[in-house]
Amino acid sequence: MRRQGYYSESWFEATEKFVKNASKSGKLKWATSTETEFDIPYVSIGNGSNVVVINSGIHGLEGYFGSAAQLMFINEFAPKLSASVLKKYKIVLIHIINGWGMQNRMREVMVANNGGLVDLNRNFGVDFSNPKSLPKNELYKQAHDILLSKPHIENVGKKNPTKKNKLLKFRRENLANGVWASVARGQYYEPYGLFYGGNTQMTENKMTLHIYDEIMRDAKSLISVGLHTGIGRFYKSRGYTTMNLLVSHPATHEKTKKFREIFEPAMKIVPDEGTENGPTLLGDLVDCLESRYANMNIPIYTADLEVGTGEWPVLSNVLKRMDMGDARYDLVHFGEIEKKTKQNLTESWYPSHPAWRTSAMKNANIFFTQLTKFLENNK
Fold this sequence. Notes:
The protein is α/β, with parallel strands linked by helices. Helix content is 39%, strand content 17%. It contains 13 helices and eleven strands. The strands form two sheets. Strands 1, 2, 3, 4, 7, 8, 9, 10 and 11 form a nine-stranded mixed beta sheet that branches. It has a two-stranded antiparallel ribbon with strand order 5-6. The model has no long low-confidence stretch (mean pLDDT 95).
């Protein structure tokens, strides 16, 4: 299969490709639930007690890249793994956690009966039993109204600036005080607000943790990486997109050092110095896994791989948040997302430009090359 053929344009197409190819490479299983039609297939390659997990599609729309990358691993890397690696390691690919989001070109999953749009990566490891104890993000409230204001219209004029220009101004005024950064942190009181973490654990996350619990039963170590798109640059004229591995620990932490050992200098490791004062992201899978299996007293290394999609360093971030806010405006006022808004959302996280898709697969190739090299050197 040529690498462009690894991409799909729907959850159904991607899942069919994954199941067909994965069943030839390892033990294929499914996590299912009567609460959703989007089951989660996953494949285990190898029989070792040292577990390596690559998950995709926590943010549904980003799963188009994640699925393509997993297909590439199955077809190009799995067949070359040595017998000794397969004896020591168990490599698990979890395919598209948010199937609804992928199929509907959304990062989030929609909750029935006006329950809002839940970002699954703000929904892990949160205690929903007591609403008063939910994580707090008071700064987000200052950004909510402008983000969900009437969608951006071009050429409005200086006397009535566009939503884009209003957001650029809001960013400038609220960059230093933490309000702009707080938007992506996660919040639990505005169902149609950005990065809403929900009011109960979502079905998709229950299924995901069921998979992890099963494969971690007798594990001696865990390396888990989620495949994402969005953070970083896409240099269209050069046909090049960035790739960063985000680690939720400071640079001096042992877990950050482990990822540097595995992947540098081939790719950039981005530590998070802010985690010394608590998680930067609320309810994310990375932190959830570390705390969930902490009592096993085994090495646990978790991170997120980010392939860039933005053409402009500042404006792209503004446009992404604007597109998300516009989608919510449409849903609240019209009950559905306008076609143009949906197209903007798709381009934000899954660009249609052939150069982006080619470069994204080159990045995935670098990532898997480094990972398998580490496994072969430590078998």
